[in-house]
Write a structure and sequence with these properties.
Helix content of chain A: 40-55%
CATH topology of chain A: TIM Barrel
Protein name (chains A, B, C, D): Polysaccharide deacetylase
InterPro entries (chains A, B, C, D): Glyco_hydro/deAcase_b/a-brl (IPR011330), NODB_dom (IPR002509), PgdA-like (IPR037950)
Number of domains of chain A: 1
Distance between the termini of chain A: 42 Å
Oligomer: homotetramer
């Protein structure tokens, strides 16, 4: 009975390059104005709120791209189609810097609140917007407000998406077979790269009247302490650590400076493999874990 | 007038094994999907929310069982019947590891919001679900959302439950006589093992859109500092310290690692007796403290 | 231009015994069940909530009385009449220990939400309840929920109350003339001993479903750091520091232990005069500062 | 790949006196009663709330003026017209101490919730109130609740205002041309000095029943750590750091003492130029950066 006792490794379904215990990805959700407009349409009247959101693509993205360059990290940026069309320069800069651009809805509306036709429309409209700007259709998807519907995995698989990153039921990526349970062999599948609320800057920093007033804005030191504690846990237990930052929040100079130091620290950890989500998804597919159906609970 | 002055021990109604000043229990509420569904039925539409909740029985329980094994602590897991049926493997694993399985409602609905017939139905349905899986009817009960009704103590006593752990008016367990005040000698009684909000991981970690958005998610270090400060107070004053963790929250790698270190610390304290709640209840009954009626306030 | 420069003492309208720079009072609001019932009547159905509130008079008051005795501090306890009638032993214990018992409404309803007749009824009913238990009518008043009405100062003055402690517009006590502005000499007046939200344990510790869910419960160390920083400011600037704790919150063993150490610290500060509010009020009256009318703003 | 690597200075559109990397302003929003009355008119019934707000102009302003004098900092105070008329002495004291007095609405209502005529009426009424007290019409404006409308920039420019300080889309001040995009040369412009939510004491300290209950009140040490981290980020990246304190919050002795030490620290930093906002605006105009139109998003 000792805290330092050796730990069994009951479940390590995947192996990472270089024998790393833990994969890590520094992802970004470039919400911009759409996040406020979808959550509270009345914020359209507020120039203050609109500019608060615009700070992300206007200023934050550039600063974060500089930081990623300095620390030598490649990342994934999830961009709603509406935001991409409003700030095409930010999207082109991200692509030019060699990072992955992925899908984050069109109007940043929660899929779980839409019927399947509306979901498909938002999905295709968002892919079209990104393709027009970058020449490529996105291969990764993350649900706006992290609120994936039951129908979306099939919609994604049908369209050839490689992965989704919106679910919360595992420490490791897995292969999801979104048809009925026990789907026929050869059915289209999707990699799921799980996230969780503690690894998000929104709950630490976001104050947005009429949208979210989560209580005292935390210091960057507090946020990084939290994210680091979860990373350390994953280095111990194995897993895939996915951090999400929003440029309209973490692009601010003070937060960005602390995030840069944190990224630089993680980049020195020999037991951590840092990669964009697309590479993590491919690495998962290569190992061909048994696909998993949707949960059995009836919605 | 000194802070270090000897402290009188005005009330120590119970004695613990080995002369410990303080009993301690690391209990778990395995809510799973039911906690979200009962609080906000619309979350059924959200695959993200459902998987966030499923993380508890799917991943968290196994990790926590490993930890309990390593630190040599036996514990009590409160499981709603609905969750038990959806995740029978988790329940069997808990039982196989030698921990106590106790009742946490069927649909995780708050008893105080139900009429007595509905309460009885939820109670029996939950007991049946657990018995089918483990072979035993549970002896302990904790109200979903920690919201016990005035009728439930009698319902529990009539069914032969040994204890409830949902009330908040004492530092020590006590014997509750749920009939009218001054109930006749020989009436059925129940042990009450009190809890309190500061000894719960929900208020530190839970962010669940449409259910609870309690403000900035805290670090595990902050949570453990809070729980430890209350434990230290009880070591000074005497009492029974009952911590509650939720596997969907504290089963995450970073939180689990910090919790393991904390458990290992407590396990070295010679003035603290760690036990499952069922053993604490039996220890209480053995000392036969005078039973107490329900509070006099008219609901 | 230096932070260490001597500070002018622009306004020190009152002097404290022994040349202390700062008066201090450790006051308690013994809300009990009434605080929950008044804020959310439906909590009457919840035995968990009722017992959470009952912890204050049942357990917390006794522990806090022991602590006050050990650190040699006399205090003021504000008790709603309803709570006094439900827990008469707690009230008698407070009085027997030599502390001041003051008025905190009858049903703990916010005066600002009542018409003047209802306010008077709550006021007299509360005084009657306390007088029946202690033999004395209370001389001090604090509004439930710290929500004083415009009419209450006159109602208090007419009844011969010595002081109120519910307003927030000064660092020092003052004499309030609750009639119209420039009230005639000789009109009844009242001492006002101001409070403020940062000096209250409610905003640090209170989690009460359906009543208040203020975000992550803080550690006692955090709470005391906040209270201490304000005390240090008042030692620098002069003033009257009034802390309010609720026995249902700060009577818990861990919080009480930290509070005891803090009280013991303050008791060693030679520049701080600790007293019950009644003594502070009398000390104010003796210095006969010019009375002040109600603010000019039209409600 | 090192955190200490030299940082490119991609965008430093403005230069500050003495070669400072960062401009800084300690601004104050003297809301007083109007902030509560506009957000929740029912608070007019509460003498406690009204006095809580009155603390700002009654006590806080004087203390903060003393502090500014001791640390040798000149500042900008935004005062709603209603508050100025209710507390004229505070406004005269601010002016007499040589600080800038600027416009903060008349009734502290959010412009984004008003039609253009109402906005103009609030604007002119507020200017009239300040001019009657100080002899000067204000040259700077900040929207109540930091909620600027799309129409207000043109209303301000038409009236000859020098600057606004309510938007959030940049680290540096800029020149805003509020007419249609690509406004004709010579059209009236306005300097915008951006702010952001993390540099505000409201989110750290404000607890105001029925108006805002943001969670546990933070310590002054926490607030200053947050503000300092953003200042350090701006010293690294360049920018204009604008802190906002409310005298009803930060005028309290403990918070004021910590703020004074922080101000004194910043005053020793050779890479930071501290100035009132009006001077920062003039410095911006002198460098004649290319004007920017309103964002393209259709409200």
């Amino acid at each position: 009975m000792s805290a330092a006792a050796d730990r069994p490794h009951a479940r390590a379904p995947l192996e990472w390059p270089g024998g790393a215990r833990c994969a890590a990805s520094f992802s970004f959700d470039v919400d911009g104005e759409s996040a406020a407009l979808a959550a509270a349409p009345g914020t359209a009247r507020s120039l203050s709120v609109m500019t608060h959101q615009a700070y992300g693509p206007r200023v934050g993205v550039g600063r974060l791209l500089d930081i990623l360059d300095r620390v030598g990290v490649r990342s994934t940026f999830f961009v709603p189609g509406f935001t991409a069309e409003l700030h095409p320069g930010a999207v082109r800069d991200i692509a030019a810097a060699g990072h992955e651009i992925a899908h984050h809805g069109y109007h940043h509306v929660r899929p779980a609140g839409l019927d399947p036709e509306q979901q498909a429309e938002q999905l295709d409209r968002g892919s079209d917007a990104l393709e027009r700007l970058t020449g490529d259709r996105p291969l990764g998807y993350r649900a706006p407000m992290w609120d994936l519907s039951w129908e979306m995995p099939a919609l994604l698989a049908e369209r050839g998406f490689l992965y989704d990153s919106s679910l919360m039921d595992d420490d490791f990526p897995y292969v999801l077979s979104p048809g009925e349970q026990g789907a026929a062999e050869g059915a289209r599948t999707l990699v799921e790269i799980p996230i969780q609320w503690a690894l998000d800057d929104w709950e630490q920093y976001c104050f947005l009247p009429d949208v979210t007033e989560l209580g005292p804005i935390q210091t960057p030191a507090h946020a990084v302490e939290l994210w680091r504690s979860e990373l350390d846990g994953m280095r111990e237990h194995g897993g895939c650590w996915v951090l999400t930052n929003h440029p309209f929040l973490s692009g601010r100079p003070g937060r960005a400076a602390v995030l840069e130091r944190f990224m630089a620290d993680v980049a020195t950890m020999s037991d951590v493999w840092i990669a964009p989500l697309g590479e993590i998804a491919r690495r998962t597919v290569e190992q061909a874990p048994a696909p998993r159906g949707l949960p059995r609970i009836e919605p």
